[in-house]
Amino acid sequence: MLRYFWIAFLLLSLLVISGCGDIEEMIEEATRQEITVSRTIHNSDSERNVKSTIVMEDVAVALGDRVAAGAVDISKLSERIDVYRLGLGEVRFFVKGYMRNHSDSPAFVTLSAVPNNSADGQPEMIGTVTLQAGEALELTNPSDMDQGSETIHENLAAVFGALGEGYVINPIVEVQGANQGEVIVDWIQLSALPAYWRTGILSPGGLTSYEKNVKRIYQAMLEGSVKNRGDQLAEVTVYISPKGATDMEESIIAHAFLEPDEKLQGYEMLVEGGATRIKEAFEKMVSGEDMHFDFVVVSEQPLAVKSRNLRIQAKLTVEANIF
To answer: Which of 129, 174, 270, 298 makes an SS bond possible with 110, Cβ 3.0 to 4.6 Å?
Structure first.
């Protein structure tokens, strides 16, 4: 009993000396915590090369004639098509192939395609190739067709942009020439330059337990690092967006061009407003909302990137409400 008397006496003395307001402040200080929270974006080595899919092979086309390949599945390119269509990265498209002119006059080969979602079934122009009499030609580089790499890319992007839910096109080859003969199309591929895309959900997890007690979210930042282990320039972009977001320009938190063997810390890649978007993402997660992230790397040559615990991070001031 004597012990309880002294405890009560000390508390009463504290109240008399400090006042109720000071006691409340002392209790608030004792019940306040600073918590660091994070969500991982990427933490591994990733490599990608040029990807191609065959759309036509072993076809003989007479001069003055055209041949349609029928429905062709190009879903091997689906990831890179989606990266481009969603505006996540500047993936580049081009044509590869091998063809032979079996005539004694020049032949003009036109490649086009009908997307599966075409309203009128009319083919979209991709590009042309001029073959001299008896010439065999292999298309290996984006600039090998008559129109050059930029036009071919734009034409393929238009075809892919007209795709419906599936990834199906009907490729068409047409050949024009002055004399009789034919062009043999050994094979034609549609190709995409290297791109890596990782997408996922940033879950609230245990953050919702702090919802009524979070007083402040601060020091929002992108932490970790990304290193370009490839031989060419690599473009890295990170997006964070709420469900249903369509304007990806409003979701960018980080963007950088990395030279070969260059390494950047996350905070070095932040765009203007990126830290604010990270803070807003944590605010939404605290309130129970899922967030989405996209980590995209594109290059014109085989790419290799190493991410070391690339993550969004922030500090939370949490106070227990005991009054």
So the answer is: 174
